[in-house]
Amino acid sequence: MGRWAPSQSREWHWTWLTRTVPIRRSLTSTEPGSSSSSSTNPTSSWAATKAASNPTAVPPSFTVYSTDDVGGRHYMIGETRSRPPLYAVSLHAGWKGPDVELHSGPSESEPPPLATAKRGSLFGDGATVQLPGPDGGGGMVKEKVDASNDFPYPSYGFAIEVEQGQQREEFRWVHIGMRKGWQLARLSTSEVVAVFDWTTLTKKELYFQFVGHGGTGILGERWAIMAVITAIRAWDRVKRKQASGAV
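Predicted structure:
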């Protein structure tokens, strides 16, 4: 299984089979020794060019942080807490609407959502994700997310078009060992293409990073959106189970 070990350079390493990939937690203004300069934050210039180049693009690494004092159902996606948020995230309970809404901008009132995820059945952790279609025509297309029966943490798999829609490939989120870390594996190559973890005490911050070919943009924007919303939903499912004592 995986091994989690902190290093002195603010990088956290997972070992998945024989592979080690780094995830860099975004520095915030409240952390000792943090800096907002581009020399210490490789994504610092990303938001400045987002609106002009691709308004629905996803940054290579980011933090999902709570905007609630209590409850923990409203979140923002941003490079760091100290920078302007990029997208709003809403988490819901019940069957009338989606479990997760990834909004098109930093306001929950901005229609339409960039993507949504809804539990697929009363029993099991599978889901249906709606996100823009591969043809870019503006319509929303449904994609299935399956869940394994592994206890206490199921893995979550999906298939989606990659590399400008030239082919569909399968990917799976897998929990690593006894820690909080998760890795997204590209099953055709066994490569890790994204990772996330979260804070232990508050459970109100998720740290996400694309790695390997996932960080190059070659897999496409639709794949990136799918990776993000399935990660947030997996995180939310774990938090709910922990709150109920099921994990």
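Summary: The radius of gyration is 17 Å.
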